[in-house]
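Quick start: read one record
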Amino acid sequence: MKTEYENKQIYFVGGGIASLAGAVFLIRDCDFPGDQIHIIEEMKVLGGSNDGAGDAANGYIIRGGRMLNDETYENLWDLLKSIPSLDHPGLSVREEITAFDNAHPTHSNARLVNRDGQVEDVLSMGFDMGDRLAMGKLLITPEEQLGKARINDWFGPHFFQTNFWYMWATTFAFQPWHSAVEFKRYMIRFMHEFPRIQTLEGVTRTPYNQYDSIILPMHKYLERHQVDFTMKCTVTDLEFKDSSEEITVTKIKYSKEGAEGVLDLRAGDLVIVTNGSMTEGSSLGSMHEAPKLNGKGSSWALWDRIAVKKPGLGNPSSFNDHVEGSKWESFTVTCQDSRFFDLMEKFSRNKAGTGALVTFKDSSWFMSIVLAHQPHFRNQPDHVKVFWGYGLFPDRPGDYVKKKMSECTGEEILTELLHHLHFDENSEAIIQSANCIPCMMPYITAQFMPRAVSDRPQVVPPGSTNLAFIGQFCEIPDDVVFTEEYSVRTARMAVYQLLGLDKPVVPIQQHQYDVRILLQGLITAFR
């Protein structure tokens, strides 16, 4: 152990992938002692939004599915090279994921389905010249000029009826009222995926859900290094040194098992906070009950409290006070037989379990489903099949079930889906053997809401001596939120900067300067 670390304690507020990554970087890159790293988590399980739980009898739950990418997840892959696989001794998690993805590549043959249950030809993006010109102008317009512009401030109505929009919006969860800046960043960061967006061949999948495949191995790694985990503990506030020139946290206030407590920080101690949460306030329904719409929880409340105490700590209101624009609903379906998967394989011409995304473009709910490789959970029996889906417009009445998606039970959501697939002859048998659990997420795309430059705090705010922010609601120039990479990159930046470590963070690949990628994109735009 380095002598300068002898009495230093580091506290992570939140137990999501950003905090876990930060702890790994401390141990691996800084030679920091694990028993001086403390991760404080409100829930009883780690992983934050990277969740995966349940069983065959009661149904499985994944609030969200994550599509990884070889070319753009630079720091995630560097991190996972250091995490041993739980299932394949001698392999890292990165090597395990690569081997799995090579054996089970993603390739969608039914990316869009129309109202008649027919697979659409999506080789053409469907652009007219106005769409192409608007896209080109967006890509060269500085973010400062875009400001709080929304996507539908930039593009006309035709753009939102194109094959491109249907595919891009449902791949990355964009809505027309989301930030044009975030949309532009995605177009640049994933420019290499534009020519194959119709097949999703660039998507890298994990062997199981992300909790089982990524979070659990990271947790085991950190346990072996004696990292301290405090679970079911809510950080409620931070107190700061009385100074107009610096930002120094002096106390961490928390609540655990109904009792209030305070951690007094010593000189040299560090605090790394996950500010905000896209899955906070999530509510589960059941086959016979719709989920509720919850409000702000402790993560948002903490950021609200500290943001008013010091300049440079961001403006959470831009993200957490616009639920009507940030919410959507997902659902996880547990099937007790393979009937639905067999029908989907025949219908879509996708080999069952390839993880190909299927979007029902004319659905009032703008519904999509993903059939991942099975088993998707470590404890999943062979005969059980699990798939996941979501609707981006949960407050619109269904096309067959004449209710808002947000008011529907799991059975009604599954009924709507089966009608869109025209699986009428098999609907009753599928529903009887299935358990569909809906999940309402009020802040799931909060990070995409229009914002000012200063609304997201810097990873290490100006003047900070011991505070950093990590996760989806702090600012990294040019990078894209709503990705695992963003969380991991913020964690690496926070650790290196706070400890004064002169190590490089893997840079963002600049695809927009690659002539080959630009040419492929131009050709695709005119297909």
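The chain has a mean pLDDT of 96.
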